[in-house]
Amino acid sequence: MIKINIPSTLPANIEKWKTKAEEITESIIKAPTLLEKQTLINKYQGHWRDPDLIQWLSDLSAEKCWYTETKFGGDYQEVEHFRPKKETKDIHGQAVDGHPGYYWLAFNIVNYRLCKRRPNAKKGTFFPIRNEHLRAMSELWTWQDELPLFLDPTDDEDCILLSFNDDGRPVPNEGLADSDVTRVDFTIEKYYLDERVLNKRRAETWSACRELYYKYLNSVKLASVGLNGSVTHTAQAKKDLQTIKEMLRPNREFAAVARQSLIKIGDRLAQTIASSS
Length: 277
Description:
Layout: H1 12-30, H2 34-43, H3 51-60, E1 78-81, E2 112-115, H4 117-123, H5 156-159, E3 162-164, E4 170-172, H6 178-190, H7 196-224, H8 230-247, H9 255-263, H10 268-276
Helix pairs in contact: 1-2, 7-8, 7-9, 9-10
């Protein structure tokens, strides 16, 4: 999962999209029955699939899935409704009694997360929260008071809760409270993040980044032992460091994994490199 920064100022085409979305939302809210509200959501579902919106959301993540951190490529980019637009399930997969779905957020841009098909399908309409008594039941409630069990890629604090091991498996970061461990584990399960191929590719990134780091340290050491060959080794050290930084760039797949591979070395220099990129 990667941190996504939603800018406060939107480009003109997205502002136009938002204006239309607000009109649709108003008509949904005014609809007298839940069935009519859901009918309107179905009628206008093409709006959240607008190519301009998809491209803008994709640009925010350098063409990467917000959860798996893999490039979309030929994969269809799906707009996932963080808060489900119709049915809402609790942690056990049971429909939340009396909840109509977050119909008033169906066309709200802040409720969108861009991801691939598998995590979107696995997550489905799950949306458990930690304070059920504060669950928003309509547009009249303050839905921002909810504390989702899911980690949110648009939340700074949530993004640092997820880490990785050398085998590529996603895990809770070290030293978390039990409640946060539960959130991480639930997110991993429901977004299908602990998947064999994903783990394999993450492990390859982890290994490659660490090997480069130790190679960099060796070049630095050789460059410092004397004049003989120091220019060559200094140049190699700079090259290795640049390659490491390339792996940490936001547009690279599994940049978060590369960063964790350095942080977990426990070496201050490695941690400095990870945090400065």
